[in-house]
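Changelog-adjacent note: as of this version, every example in the card shows the full chain rather than a window. The one below runs 739 residues end to end.
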Amino acid sequence: MPPKKLNSSLDSFPYSFREISLSTYLINLRTLLKTNDLVYLIMSTLKAKVIGMSCVSCANTIERVLKSQGIDAHIEFTSAIAYINTDDESKLKKAKEKLNSLGYDILVQESNDEFIKKEKKNLILSWIFSIPIFIKMALMPFGIHIENHTIDLALFIISSIIVIFFGRQVHKSGIGSLVVLAPNMDSLISIGTIVSLSTYILSIFLPIGNFSSESAVIMNIFLLGNYIKNKSTVLASSKIEKLYSLIVSYANTIIDGNEVKVNIENVNKGDIIIVKPGEIIPLDGVIIKGSSYIDESSITGEPLPKPKTIGDRVLGGTMNIDGYIEVRVEKEYKDTVIKKIVDFVEKSESTKLKIQSLIDKVVLYFVPSIFVISILVFGIWLIQGDTSKALVASISILVIACPCALGLAVPLAIKVGFGILATKGILIKNPETIEKIVKVNTVVFDKTGTLTEGKPKVKSTNLPEDILKLVSAIESKVNHPLSTAIIEFSKSIGLEFSNVNVENIKNVPGKGIEGTANGITIRIFKPDKEMENSNGTISIVYILENNNFIEKGYIEFEDNIKENVKEVIEYLKNKEIGVFLVTGDNEVSAKRVSREIGIPENNVFCNMLPDEKVNAIRKLREEGKNVMFVGDGINDAPSIKESFVGVAMSTGSDITSELGDVIIVGSRIKALIDLFEVSKMIHRKIIQNLFYAFIYNIIAIPIAGLGLLTPGIAQLIMSISSISVVINSLLVKSRNNSH
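Full-length structure tokens:
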């Protein structure tokens, strides 16, 4: 009996966290594996919460530390998640110790909620301690200046508690990063507050102002800004988080007639699971008992629940609304649609835009440059004999510079947008695709399965039943929509063909299939052009005996056009995007569809073999058109690859990054409107965020250097800049909801 599979990753419970260290997690995992008589450690990507990270510089530092220990890792700054690939516990332990010394930590299974709660508690206590400082500052505009050594000493002590104790994590990260010559945002705040705090003591011996209370204001505003930013970025991740929530940890299985709760990773193909009303279906499978309405909106974006009964396929991550059903598992956990979607989204999120890589390099040198500018400004004011102005200007520069806004500008907009698209059943391979989608000016559609349901039915035939029986026997050996239609039609009129002897099945590319049934050779081919006299798809059946032609007949099919196709075509035409149709079907059938949905007949290419479709797309591109091809992702793979942007309409079971630049799960054609609208919004928000971030720093730093801002006001402006980028990114969500 093979060993049961155990979950060594966090995929099955990514947002149900307990605060345990990474090394403790691995020790517990090893013990667990030994108790199951496994002599090997099953490793996959570990997912850990990063503590103490405040900017992109922090993420770069943590990534470098992990890689210096021989650990392959990727740090996602916007969600503070580390993806770690290693099975060496000693390496992880050393890396963790090194990170702890720099003020960071990596925790397996700590939730965003828990992290935010800790930040909130620390923030509230810090602001409560600051009340005396705020009272004194509030009285100053009214001309009430309290000059008292005892009060000044008390306020200095309060400021010291706020800066040193409540800001301890900031200093641990900031100073630690400085020591290894990798300064970050915390380094700027740490040095700025310490210098500001020390002015109380320096003012006793030197003719300078006392800015110690300003240090408490700086730290409080920084902690508040960080809390708002982190709370907002959690909100930005809510759409992605919703996907994770669809993965349930356990399934109710039937074992020896009894209902047993089993971890989904231990459920095998062929097992029977029970799904009760209101429960999420754990795994992909087929209903073998009962019926219900299933809400698939979380996977495909379809708004209305679908009725499902015995023999129907259901997907893991969808909701069983009102009926008791028993499901035979067809896909193990790692192969389920929802798992593939999550993996696809995580992989796409880890890919950076070229401009993001450039920004990361800018941020790498940004903080050291700010230190240099601060020192130069201090020196310039000092030379002019104004020590107080030198301190105010240099501290203000340290606390107003904002690498956070730069670091958040691109990845946060992408995260929000990708989350929206994923919950609508739209998966994008990488962020670069967004830039390409906004440049698309031509869309080429495949017909069958893309614009039509892809479930053709036999409309009519002139074949006698004895020949139709042989045709059905041959088609039963082939996996094709037309084959299914013929088989269903034959069964509906009571034909039995299971006992027919079928041999020599052969696919003839671009034409059809042929085979031998009970010694008679039958070819089921597409018609010649001169025979195109049908409003639907037609197949010509040739019957041969001893390679001699005997007779021929036809089978005519009809395939319904998908709902919302007209709306999509109208949308594209309103956006001045050219629309074309390419199909292997005959001219009469293709143009009937084009007329019904609004594609100009001059833009219809019919009787196209796969290589001819590719040539048609290539010709359009040579004319200067940025072509998006929309097809089924399998038969149309060459066309998808040839196009500027390839879109694959997927049933869900075949999700793979090889399909195309974009995958639409569930083949919902209206998702194309969402794709264009959200992509345009993401692109716009990225440009806006970068503009805000760069303009802010370009304007704010010189103003601070001129000594026109107090350090407290400078810190307030810095926090607002980061928050504004977050809020602007979240507007992708709010604007989309109104669409």
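Structural remarks: The first helix runs from residue 22 to 35.
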